[in-house]
Amino acid sequence: MTGYTFAEKALARAAGVSGARAGDILDVMPDVVFSHDNSAAIRRIFEKIGAPRIRYPERVAITLDHAVPAPTTQHAQNHAEIREWVCLQGIRHFFEVGRGICHQVLSEEAIVLPGETILGADSHSTHFGWMGAFGMGVGRTEMAALWATGQLWLRVPEAMRVILTGHLQPGVTAKDVALRIIGDRGADGGQYRSVEFHGDLISRLSLDERAVLPNMMAEFGAMNAYLPPDDLVFAALEAKRARDYTPLYPDDDAVYSDIYALDVSVLEPQIALPHSPANVVPLSDAAGQPVQQAFIGTCTNGRYEDLEAAARVLAGRRVRCRLVVIPASAEVLRRAAESGVLSTLIEAGAAIGTPGCGPCMGNHMGIPAPQEATISTANRNFRGRMGTADAPIYLANPYVVAASAIRGAIADPREYLQ
Amino acid sequence: MTRHRVWVYGDDVNTDVIFPGKYTYTLKTPAELAAHALEDLDPAFAAGVRPGDIIVAGRNWGCGSSREQAVTALKHAGVNILIAESFSGLYFRNCINQGVLPLVIAGLRNLVQTGDEIEVDLEAGIVVAAGQQFAVPTLSPSVRAILDAGGLVPMLQARFAAGASS
Question: Is the ipTM of this complex over 0.90?
Answer without folding.
Answer: yes
